[in-house]
Structure formats: C-alpha cells, structure tokens
Specification:
Layout lengths: L4 H18 L3 H17 L3 H6 L5 H12 L4 H12 L6 H15 L2 E8 L5 H15 L3 E8 L6 E6 L2 E6 H18 L1
Parallel strand pairs: 1-2
Antiparallel strand pairs: 1-3, 3-4
Length: 185
C-alpha cells in the first residue's frame, strides 16, 4: 500500500523530531531545517528532481551531494534516508510536521489575527499574550491580517480554532435574531 505524501510527511517529521529531542538537538535541527526550507523555496522543483525516476542516479547523486554538503549529523543522515527512499519531493511536508511539533514542544501557538485596521505594536503584543493564555500556551505568534469587511473587533484563527469577535459577526447574529422574530410573528 502506497502512503499519501501527507502521511509520509507526518511520519518522517515526527520521527526526526523525536530523535532530535532524544539527542537534545531539537533547536539545531530546527535551524538547519529552516535553511533547507529556504533552499527549496529558492529552487522550486528541487524535490521533484531528486525524486524523479527518469533521471540517471548519478545525476541526482551530484545534486544531492551539493545539497547535503552544508549539513552534518542528524540532518545530513535524515536527508540521506529521505533521498534513499525517493521522498525528497515530500521534504517540505516533513519540515512542516517537525516545525509543528517543535512549536508545540516550546508551547508556542501560531495563528492570525484579522482586524479592520492594523494593530499597534502594543495591541499586537497584548493580543498574542491573551490568545496564548486563552488557548493554554506560553507564547503566541500571530500575523496581523487586515480585512475591512469585519468592520471592527478581531477574528483570531489558531490551532484549528476560530474566535470571531468582529462587529460584522455580531451584526450578522442580530440580523439572524430579527429574522427569526419576524418569522414567528
């Protein structure tokens, strides 16, 4: 049975994270994975090239040797295993899974806060502290998105949860209640 790329990404990312924790190298591995992600963004299609069965092995080996030259230890070994099993095209999913587990380990939640106008630095910091506390984390990192349609208030999306405190939502709820009252009369 062939596994889908998301399952593969989760399994490999989880395995690397657990090993990095065991060896007390989670921070170093994370930093190296960030540089690896940058390379993948700078060279789109690199994973596909390294996983392409139509290329000669020596051609892929040349590229792979250049890629792993700047890595050592756990990340280098990890890359060699991923390459050996022709999964280099799933590497970004593996990095995402590692990062998710790394952030969770550090009690950091990532998300967005949508507002009608940009938050000040102080408001943004206060929002991050409030969200972290509400959701049981030590820290939150929220990206401020601007959406004039929410009119006012905030919409927070983090950890697969949505907290909608927008005026738009409140107006919509009032409209729904008024429509219910009209239909009852």
């Amino acid at each position: 049975m062939k596994l889908d790329k998301y399952t593969v990404g989760k399994r490999y990312g989880k395995a690397l994270f657990e090993l990095a924790i065991e060896k007390q190298e989670a921070d170093n591995v994370y930093q190296e994975l960030l540089t690896l992600r940058e390379i993948y963004h700078e060279v789109p299609g690199l994973g596909d090239i390294l996983s392409d069965a139509r290329l000669e092995p020596y051609e892929k080996d040349e590229i792979m040797n250049k890629l792993i030259a700047s890595y050592e230890g756990m990340v280098k070994n990890f890359l060699m295993v991923v390459y050996k099993y022709s999964r280099m095209n799933d590497l970004l999913l593996m990095i995402d899974e590692y990062e998710l587990r790394y952030d969770e380990h550090r009690s950091l939640i990532l998300g967005t806060v949508s507002t009608a106008i940009p938050l000040t630095k102080e408001q943004h910091q206060a929002m991050e502290e409030k969200v972290a506390s509400m959701l049981g984390y030590k820290h939150a990192h929220l990206i401020n998105l601007i959406d004039p349609e929410i009119v006012g208030g905030v919409v927070i999306e983090a950890n697969h949860q949505v907290i909608d405190g927008s005026i738009h939502k409140q107006l919509e709820q009032i409209r729904q209640r008024l429509m219910k009252k009209e239909s009852v009369q």
